[in-house]
Amino acid sequence: MMRKLLTLATLLFAFTINAQDIFGKWNSTNEETGEVDSIIEIYKKDNKAYAKVVKIMDPARQNSVCTACEGENKNKKILGLDILTGLEKDDDEWSGGEILDPRNGKVYKCYIKLVKDNKLKIRGFIGVSLFGKTKYWERAQ
Length: 141
Known about the structure:
The chain is mainly β.
């Protein structure tokens, strides 16, 4: 009986830890319509957080490219594009990286923070965090 309780406690603990992780798939919503327009997957590489567009909801935009982007991302397909790069864990947030907005091609400094199990805060800014914009992503089901 004790072994079963210990196993159950371990599984619940593992589930709770996993649920509080930034990694996985997230819904990105269109600010004008409020509807989910893409799904972003946050993944870990070399102990840093990255994110890429893994699904575009509008079938007509499946082959869209980032015409406004500069450098290596110029005219790259948005589907599969890394939009979040090089964030490092700093206490309860991930910071020190950049986020690309494929709608306008601009790159911003950013940080992300899990505010609830299924809600992620993304803050993009120029210079200091005071001058920027915050978005919230809900975890994709």
